[in-house]
Structure formats: C-alpha cells, structure tokens
Amino acid sequence: MSPVFALSLRSIANRRLSVALTVVAVALSVALLLGVERLRNDARASFAQTISATDLVVGARGGALQLLLYSVFHIGDATANLSWAGVEHVAALPQVRWLVPLALGDAHRGHRVVGTTAAFFTHYRHGEARALAFAAGGPFAEAPARAQDIFQTVIGAEVAARHGYRLGQQIVLSHGSLGGEGGPRFADHADKPFTIVGILAPSGTPVDRALLVSLEGIEAIHIDWHGGAPLPGLKIAPEHVRKFDLQPKSVTAALVGLHSRGAVFRVQRQINTWAGEPLTAILPGVTLQQLWDLVAVAERALLAVSALVVVVGLAGLVAVVVASLGERRRELAILRALGASPRDVFALLAIESLLLALAGIALGLALLYGVGAAASPWLAAQHGLQLALGWPSAGEWRLLGAVLAAALAASLLPALRAYRQSLADGMTVRT
Amino acid sequence: MSLHWNGSAQASTPTTLPATTPIHPQALSAAPAPGCAGATPAVRLAGLRYRWPGAAADCLAIDALTIGAGERVFLRGPSGSGKTTLLSLVGGVVLPQAGGIEVAGQALDRLSAGVRDRFRADHVGFVFQLFNLLPWLSARDNILLACRFSPQRRARVAAAGSTPAAEAERLASRLDLAPELLERAAAQLSVGQQQRVAAARALIGRPGLVVADEPTSALDADRQQAFIDLLLEECAAAASALLFVSHDQRLAAHFDRVLDLATLNRAGNAREAGR
C-alpha cells in the first residue's frame, strides 16, 4: 500500500472530532437526498396505484382528468351523471367481468359519502392489487331485506381516527358534497342516521377519508327530497323506505373490470361511442400518470433542494480540509523533506477528502435504512405508505454516483491547494 | 569565470565532474578532506547560481563546493546567507539557474522533479531546527517514515541483515531514546527527544548525506554539544557525510572542516560589498 494511504488514515484519526462532524453533515445530506428520492418514488408508485385492477372508469361525457378526480379522488363534482340505463348497458357488455357503481354527492363532516355496492370491497384494489381490509366489522348489507339494514355505513381509517368513531355508532349524513365542518352546509339527513358497521384499515388511498354506504341508502335518504332540499310537508320515516323503489336512477361513475385487459381499448371505444348516452371511459393508470406529471414539478424541486443540501455538505467537507491545510503546512513540508513529491501531497489530501466523503455516503445510507426500518411500520399504519427497504434502485445508484463524482471533484480542491502550497514551500515553511 | 554545468564540458562527462580538476581557486578552501579523496563525493557544487522566482538578484552563487564521502562539514551560515536556498538545492527541491549540483555522484538537474524527490528520500536525511516530526505519529512511526518513502533505505537496512523496525530501535537506543519513548506520540516528547528522533529518522537506511539545519538551536546549551556528538558518532557509524549548518561557531569543534557560507556565497559578498 502506498505510504500516503496509510498516512491519510492516521491523519484523519488525528483530527477525529472535526472530521466526525463533517462526515455526519455529509451523511445527513446524503440520507436526505436518497430519502427524498425514495419517498418520491414510493409516493409516485403508491399514487399510481391508488386504484389498481380496475380497467376502466366510466362517467358522463367530460374530461378524463376531471372524471378521475371526482370518481377516485373525490375532488370536485361531476357536472353530469351516468344514467342507470347506461350502467346496465356497460355491465352487459360481454367483455365486462364486473362493474361497481359510485354515487357521490353527500358528505359527513367534510368527508365524502360514496354510495356503492358491496362489490366495491372485493373489486376496489390499490397498490399491487391489494384489497381493502377491515380493521373492524365488515361490509354493509347487500340488498338489505330489513329497512334498518339500509342505513349501514363502512368508514375509512382516517374518518374513524379523526372523529374517534367506533362500530355501532350512529352518524348523520349531510346533503351536498361541500358539507364540511365550517364549510357551507345545506341540510342534514338527520331523520335517517346511519350505523357504522365496518371500519377500514389504512390504505393510503382516498377511501381512507370516505364513508361507504349502499346505493339503496343514498336513494333512501333522498326519497323525501327534491332539488337538493327536503320536500316541505313530506316526511317518510326510515322504517317505511322499503316500500319505495330504491333503485337509483343515476350514479356518478362506475368502476369496470374486464375479463381480459387486452380488450380494454376496444371496450373503451365502445363506451365512448355508444349512441344511447354520451359517456366517457378512461384508463385510470394512464390518467393517474397524467395527474402525477402535474405535481412532478414540486417533486423535482424537492429533489433539487436535497441535491443542493448535498452540495452544502460537501462544501463543508472541503472547507474543513482546506482550513486544516494551514495548520498542516509544516507536516506537508516534513513529508517533502522525507522525499514525498508534490504529487504524493496531492494524493494524501485527495484520498483524505475522498475517504471522508465515502464515509459520509456510507453513514448516510446506514442512516436511511435505519430510519426507514424504524419508520416503516408507522408509515404503513398511519398513511398506508409501503416503504420499500430493498437495495438502492437504479435511480438511487445514479444519485449515489453523482454524489461520489461531486465528492471526487470536491476533494481535488484541497488536494490542488496542498500541491501548490508544497511546491512553493518545499522542505521549509517560510513564515 | 564559472563553469556552466550544461555547457560543452558536460558532453564527455554527463553525470560527474573530474574529481581532481580544480574548478575555481576558491574550491581549494572547499576541497574535501584528504582522507576522502577518491570516493564519490557526497555533494559537489560548481558554478552554481540560484535566484528565487521573481527576485531581482541571485540569492546564491557558489563557484565550487565539494563535501567528500563521510566527511563532516560545519557550515557557518548566519540568517540571510542563503542557507535555506542551499539546503533546498542539495535536497533537489529546486534546481539552480546555472551551474551544477551533484549528490552522491548524481547530477540533480538531469533528473525529473519526481525522481529528484525519490532521490532525496534515498540519499539525503534532513534534521531541521524544529518541527521535524508529524505530531500525531509515534516516535517509532516517525523514524520509519523515512523508510516508507524510500525503497533504497529499506533495501540497505535489509542488506545489513536487519528490519526497519529493528533498525529504528537500534538507532533510538544509540541516540539515548528509551524504548518506551518510541511508542509515544511525537507531540508528547521534549524538544531534545524530538531532535534525536529526527536524527534517527535522518540516519535510518544509511543515506550518503545527512543535512542538519540548526538542529541544536532549540536545545539547552549543555545539551547542544551532547546532541552534536551523538550525531557525529552515528553519521560516522552509518558512513554518512554530515553537512551541519549553524550560525553558532562554538559548535564547530569536532568537524573535519569548517566553512563560512558568507564567504562561499559570492551573491552574498556582492550584496555586502555594495552596501
């Protein structure tokens, strides 16, 4: 081994405190950079898989993004509805394996109420085709025979956590999707409260923030309503709703699964060009990607900021090594007298800076995995975010390579300075 | 009339000067001791001029100076006499603008900078006034550092049937350094101990030349002579020539020859004459 390499190690050991602080700074910056990159990828993956295993989302004619936003993310409102005839037409297409209707428009304390069928719990998938799981209870009753079973609801994890709801508790829905706490509130369906029969486990999807009820339930609370307000003088008690036809006339959207994914474009075209009703069918994955591209600017800005933090960390490292050069001038002169060439001096400093940077990178990785392993259960429980703790991805290796290249470039600075200093000083420091 | 190293005389004898040819009348006073004639001189300067980059006048102009193999020369050099420059030239850290410099028979100006560095490691040991050691290395590792940079020193230690570690211990004990001191960090040693460690480092692997630059000026007066005696003794044992530079004439007692840099350096004379 070169005498210079061993000397580098000893010289580092001699200045362990300042060196340790610098290494920690680099480690934190590297951990931040890789953490941001990892979270960015996981967030994108988790976002892109907000809804999976659903081949098409069908709604009234309109923009694809808008349809995705109101049907899956519960953001904004549909301008038109999908008629029940349209739903039946799509469900009857030979390629369609399943269809889950969604009826939106009511809310509970700022959370959207989604009217759907019990098939929602079997067919709605997120992540790698993960089904919704129940933290407690089970799905609401399908096609309930008894009137009181109509008024059952399954609530998302966040709804339950936020309001401390438990199974069996009764809650009141409000009319209008804007009916949030503090927001404009039209009217409550106070006469027909719903009983919580199920609480979902966190999924990291908008379902966490939603309440699910049967389509019949949605229909039932609106029997004595017209045009968004209760009909004056008409009051139908919950126990009597069974006497009415609770078949919805229209829904907001429908999730569709096909027998074969290969048919997706054909079915999409068939729905879009159906003469019976102006409909729009979208591929959720494609539209999710478009949506993500909208927010990708912020995500890239975050990455850029953390890259800058790495630059700051490396700059600190260079500053510490360069500052040490002043006090080490005599040491370098001694080495020169012993026969070290200016090139040896250059190598000594370059190796030293590079070793520090490598130590910082290694510690940063250890930090990232340590924090990741520690935070993973919490993230999964609180946010349904599945943190991948595997080997660094290709993108992360590229980032690591870039950090290493930057560290290499940074290490040249003190090395070059020492080289020129030792050329000028020779064996004796002239003061 | 100075003989230029790169002149036509070089063509026939590229690396050495004819040992018997008087180069300059002044060279007579700077000739090696008679006993050393014949062997390759440790140092030989001829017609040497050096001017620091950007300086208006020469800093050093020595017409001739020869130090024989194993010879012990005391060079009196008050500060400002070009002492540091001379040592840098002997070490091959800088090259003269004119004239030649040979160390152990090798013309330094014929070597590239990198080879000169290695050559210095192999053939010249330095002891400076202060700050000779890397403070964070042990005394032992400081001594061994000289071998780390020099394959030749290692080879010579091996040829003598020893190892660098054993040789470092032997030299340390010869220089009155207790074995337990060797394990201590250099920064924890007294100045006198540090200077002896530096001497051991200069001597390990028997370089042809040891250059000591005011090595005793940081020592107590009663320690100075003891250090010099040890250094002379060990240089003799290693058959190394010793170029001992000091402003203090009182230390010159045990040397083969005493020279005065102020007299040798015609650049300095010229400056003084002009004053």
What is the strand content of chain A? 15-25%
The profile of the biggest β sheet of chain A is: 12 strands, mixed
Poorly predicted spans of chain A = 179-183
Task: Bin the helical content of chain B.
Answer: 25-40%
User: What's the shape of chain B?
Assistant: globular
Alpha carbon gap, first and last residue of chain B? 24 Å
Described by strand count, sense and barrel closure, the largest sheet of chain B is: 5 strands, parallel
CA radius of gyration of chain A is 32 Å
Give the tally of β-strands of chain B: 9
Helix/strand-derived category of chain B reads alpha/beta
Major sheet of chain B: order of its strands?
Answer: 6-7-8-3-9
Give the overall form of chain A.
Answer: elongated
Structural overview:
The complex is a heterodimer of chains A (431) and B (275). Chain A is an alpha+beta fold. Chain A is 51% helix and 17% strand. Chain A has 13 helices and 18 strands. Chain A has helices spanning 3-14, 16-48, 64-71, 84-91, 119-123, 147-150, 157-163, 215-221, 264-272, 284-327, 329-337, 342-383, 394-425; strands spanning 56-60, 82-83, 96-108, 111-116, 125-126, 130-131, 134-137, 152-155, 170-171, 174-175, 187-188, 194-200, 210-214, 225-226, 229-230, 250-251, 253-258, 279-282. In chain A, helix 11 (329-337) packs across helix 13 (394-425) and helix 12 packs antiparallel against helix 13 (394-425). Chain A is elongated. Chain B has 275 residues and is an alpha/beta fold. Helix content of chain B is 35%, strand content 17%. Chain B is built from 10 helices and 9 strands. A 5-stranded parallel β-sheet of chain B has the order 6-7-8-3-9, with helices on both faces. In chain B, strands 2-1-4-5 form a 4-stranded antiparallel β-sheet. In chain B, helix 8 (221-238) links the parallel strand 7 (209-213) and strand 8 (241-246). Mean pLDDT of chain B is 80; it is low at 1-37 and 270-275. At the A-B interface, helix 1, helix 11 and helix 12 of A face helix 2, helix 3 and helix 4 of B.
